[in-house]
Design brief:
The structure holds 2 protein chains of 2 kinds. By secondary structure, chain A is an alpha+beta fold. Chain A is 38% helix and 34% strand. Chain A is built from 7 helices and 14 strands. In chain A, strand 13 and strand 14 form a beta hairpin. In chain A, helix 2 runs antiparallel to helix 5, helix 5 packs antiparallel against helix 6 and helix 6 packs antiparallel against helix 7. Chain A is elongated. The chains are: A alpha+beta, B mainly alpha. The interface between A and B is large, with 52 and 46 residues.
């Protein structure tokens, strides 16, 4: 047991594992990751492509033998080294140096947090247009009120902001007119909400016989009298002359899928035109590792700083 | 030429002047350090800082969002590190270390002035509008400025036979890495991961830039374990110090231009 512990805590093993992880990580950045088998066969000679695919190097950071096992061994080495070093420092009578212990404990916590985060991390994406509602898993309801997209004069994006209301499961307002922006996520109910993206979204403009306007977003359904209208898609760009709206019209007897250009009838309505609006992409993330990773990083930073302050004080 | 452009050119001239003074003194037989180059470098750092402030005022955001601005900041920090090295009393002052590091800064500014690097002062896209950007980029480059100095002293170590001189150079290399490592750890890894979580919802994505920053950190970690725990003062730590700096260069330039990923704008 002692021999095993002595081997496990050895600096030589630590250096060897770090060296292996360094070199293999470098190679992993040079070989495309997560590609299809044909991609590797077109990039590399046959034997090399087979080697990459059979060893799992095409998914290096998920590979059990190439990455996860050596990382676990390094974790065990670091833990053994930390325990051993800490006990040795405690036995010292003079000044003790706990900087490396703090640093190593931070790294161990970081590794545990990273495993928790990687294995239990859940994320969902929602594409919303103003007026859309989403029921969140905890029973709260998010209602998008507005989406603003600002650009610099040269056309580059300046900001995109989702404005929404959030009501708790009891229906009471939790956030009103909350502005969600890139880099400023909202943490609520165990989830973190991110302003992740935006996407063009087609809008179908219809009018009734008496001239009343009706608007439908793609994927939206409206019921007028006994007839339901479901806007499925556009066949092309909204501004193109030959673009048609694909609409399912269901009067309760025989549902029909119609393709109608501007000015043409759809059930008892007619197509007035099409336009494009922007829909917001909001990402909801649940990360059980959050509470561990953040303090672990602070401990690593503290331990690193302390180690070198002590070392510099002692003289190099 | 814009005001910021004039400042950039002035800083480049000051760096060249400092390198010229250092070169003249290298050929003097008394081996004494020159009395002015560090002041010229300090002036150059202030001019670069003024350039970055002018660009920040123009874009109304901290000017650290483009490759050009990062290079100016990097060169300015190297100049400050060299000034600090010249006025400190604990380490032996090696004019060649100062010259090599000044030359590194000149190369960085020469790259910045090349037509391949866009120089317009542009306000940042939403992904870059974060206070963590300031911490992540500035701490990373401050750490790397110390690594640049350690690179030069480690190279000199490898080309020196005299044991006393090697001991001196090893001490300079170690001190520079010992100061740069915690700053780099905080900037490149901790602040970078916190920012990634704030922006993308993931601490780490194994993006090439992240992986190379980790590789750089691992190389310096091996260096410190060899130097601190195994007490090695032979060529291996120096080789690692050289390799570590080459990793920072590849992380900055190589990854930007050769390996596409999430950091393709930085």
């Amino acid at each position: 047991m002692n021999t095993l512990f002595r081997r496990l805590k050895s600096v030589r093993l630590a250096v060897g594992l770090i060296a292996y992880l360094t070199v293999s990580s470098i190679l992993a950045t040079l070989v495309p990751q997560g590609g299809a088998p044909d991609e590797y066969r077109s990039l590399y000679p046959g034997f090399l492509a087979d080697l990459i695919l059979q060893t799992g190097f095409d998914r290096f950071f998920n590979s059990v033998f190439l990455f996860l096992l050596p990382s676990f061994l390094f974790f065990a080495n670091l833990s053994a080294c930390t325990v051993d070093r800490f006990l040795r420092e405690l036995k010292k009578k003079g000044s003790r140096r706990h900087g490396p212990d703090i640093l190593h404990v931070g790294l161990i916590l970081l590794a545990i947090g990273a495993v928790l985060s990687a294995s239990l991390h859940r994320e969902e994406s929602m594409t919303l247009v103003p007026g859309s509602r989403v029921n969140l898993p905890d029973g709260s309801v998010l209602t998008l009120k507005d989406f603003r997209f600002e650009q610099y004069p040269d056309g580059r994006p300046k900001n995109w902001t989702s404005v929404f209301d959030l009501a708790g499961k009891d229906g009471k307002a939790v956030k009103e007119n909350y502005e969600l922006r890139v880099n400023t996520p909202l943490r609520y109910g165990g989830f973190t909400f991110y302003q992740a993206s935006y996407t063009p979204y087609p809008v179908l403009e219809l009018k009734s016989r008496d001239g009343l306007p009706v608007e439908l977003y793609q994927g939206e359904e409206i019921k007028l009298g006994d007839t339901a209208y479901y806007f499925m898609a556009l066949t092309g760009e909204p501004a193109a002359a030959d673009t048609r709206a694909v609409v399912r019209v269901d009067d309760g007897r025989t549902p029909k899928v119609l393709r109608a250009a501007a000015g043409e009838p759809v059930g008892t309505l007619s197509v007035a035109g099409f336009r494009q609006e922007l829909a917001t992409g909001i990402q909801a993330v649940r990360d059980p590792g959050y509470g561990l990773v953040l303090p672990a990083m602070l401990i690593v930073a503290l331990g690193t700083a302390l180690t070198f302050i002590q070392k510099i004080k002692e003289g190099v | 030429m814009s005001f910021a452009g004039i400042l950039g050119t002035l800083a480049f001239i000051l760096f060249l002047a400092a390198a010229a003074v250092q070169t003249v003194w290298l050929f003097r037989r008394d081996g004494k350090p020159d009395p002015v180059s560090h002041w010229i470098l300090l002036a150059a750092a202030f001019v670069l800082a003024a350039d970055l402030v002018a660009r920040s005022l123009e874009t109304r955001f901290v000017a650290l969002t483009s490759t050009y601005e990062s290079l100016l900041f990097y060169a300015a920090v190297i100049a400050l590190v060299l000034f600090a090295y010249r006025i400190q009393k604990k380490l032996t002052y090696w004019p060649l270390v100062a010259f090599g590091s000044t030359f590194t800064a000149v190369v960085l500014l020469a790259i910045a002035s090349s037509p391949l690097i866009p120089k317009e002062a542009l306000p940042p896209i939403p992904a870059l509008q974060s206070g963590w950007l300031l911490l992540h980029v500035s701490f990373s480059f401050i750490g790397e400025a110390f690594f640049a100095a350690s690179f030069v002293s480690a190279l000199l170590f490898l080309f020196t036979k005299d044991e006393a001189r090697r001991l001196d150079l090893d001490r300079i290399t170690y001190t520079a890495i010992a100061v740069g490592y915690p700053i780099f750890t905080a900037g490149a890894l901790a602040f970078g991961a916190i920012w990634a979580e704030q922006a993308w919802g993931r601490w780490w994505s194994w993006d090439p830039k992240e992986t190379w920053a980790l590789v750089t950190w691992l190389v310096y970690t091996i260096y410190l374990h060899m130097r601190l725990i195994r007490k090695r003062k032979d060529s291996w730590p120096a080789i690692l110090a050289v390799a570590g700096f080459l990793c920072t260069v590849f992380t900055f330039f190589g990854v930007n231009y050769l390996l596409p990923g999430l950091h393709s704008y930085g």
